[in-house]
Amino acid sequence: MSTSNDTTLAPRPLADQRRRRLPASAAFGWLGAGWRDLWRQPGPSLIYGLFVFLLSAAIVFGLFQLHLDYILFPALAGFMVVGPLLAVGLYQKSRDLEAGQPVSLRRMLFVRAASGGQIWFAGALLCVLMLLWMRAATIIYALFFGLRPFPGLEDIVPMLTQTDYGLAMLAVGAAVGGLFAAFSFAISCFGIPRLLDEDVDAFTAMGSSITMVTHNLPVMLTWAAIVLVLGGLSLATGLVGLIVIFPLLGHASWHAYKAIR
Fold first, then answer.
1. What is the pTM of this model?
2. Which residues make Cβ contacts (< 8 Å) with residue 240, sequence separation at least 6?
3. Are 88 and 192 in contact (CB under 8 A)?
4. What would you measure as the largest C-alpha separation in the chain, in angstroms?
5. Measured between alpha carbons, how far is residue 206 from residues 196, 203, 210, 255 in Å?
6. DSSP state of 70
7. Which of 102, 136, 212, 215 has the fewest CB atoms within 10 Å, i.e. is most exposed?
C-alpha cells in the first residue's frame, strides 16, 4: 500500500506540471539556493568551475591558433546550448546535499544518471544543435558579405554597426540565434536534470522540459535573463568569472528543476 510520503516524493504528473504557476521572483530564490550549495563544501564546486574555465579558454585559444576566430561568437553562444550537460556534476552535488549523501569531486565527475546512457545521448543531440547554430551563423555571414574573408575581431564591430549590410546581418543573426537559444533552453534546462534524476528516455525528458518551460513562462523568462546577465559577466571577466558563476548557475538550475518538476 502506498503512503502519503510516497506520493509527495514522486514526480508530479505532466498535468500537474502544466498547472504550476510560480511567480517570476522564484527565480531569485533558485539563485539563492544555488549560492548556498556552492559554499557548502565549496572545494569540489570551485574545482569544477576551474575545469570549465580552462576548457573554455583552451577552445578560444585553439580557435585563434587555427585561424577560426570568425566562429568565436557563435561558439561562445553555443556554449549556452551544452552548458546544462556540462553542469551535470553540479546537479549531482546538489542532489547529494539534499539527500544527506557525502559530497566529493569524484562523484561529480563520474555521475551515474538514473537514465543510464540516455543522458549522454541527449548531450550528443545538444552538441549537434550547437554545431547547427555555428553553421547557421557562418551561412548568415556569407549571405550578407559573400566570400569576403573575416576581417578580424578588431574590425568586425565597425563593419557590423556602421554598414547597412552589417546592421541587417545583426538583425537576422539575432533573430535566428534567438530561435536556437530559445529552443535549446527549453529542451535542456529541465531535460538534463530529469535524465539524471529519473529513468526516462532523452526525448521524453526534453519534451517534458518544453512543457514545464512554456507553462511557467514568467519565472522561466526571469531565469533566462539571469543566466544571460551572469553569462555576460563571465565574458566581461575574460571567462575567469566562470570559476564561480558556472557552479552557481549549475546548482541553481537543480533547484529550478526541483521546484517545477
1. 0.84
2. 53, 234
3. yes
4. 71
5. 12, 5, 6, 18
6. G
7. 102
Q: Answer yes or no: are the C-beta atoms of 207 and 18 closer than 8 Å.
A: no
DSSP state of 42: H
Instruction: Determine the Cα–Cα distance for residues 95 and 188; give it in Å rounded to an integer.
Output: 18
**Residue partners of 37: CB distance under 8 A and separation at least 6:** 45, 93, 94, 97, 251, 254, 255
Model confidence pLDDT, tens digit, residues 198-240: 999 999 999 999 999 999 999 999 999 999 999 989 989 989 9
* Cβ pair 87, 249 in contact under 8 A: yes
Three-state secondary-structure class, residue 148:
coil
| Residue in 199, 235, 202, 231 with CA at minimum distance from that of residue 126 | 202
| Residue with the three cell numbers 529513468 | 199
Q: Looking at this protein, which amino acid is placed at residue 150? A: F
Residues in contact with 257: Cβ distance below 8 Å, sequence separation at least 6, in sequence order: 91, 189, 190, 193, 194, 197
Mind listing the pLDDT tens digit for each residue in 114-154? 998 899 899 889 888 888 888 888 888 888 877 766 666 66
CA nearest 76: which of 124, 133, 122? 133
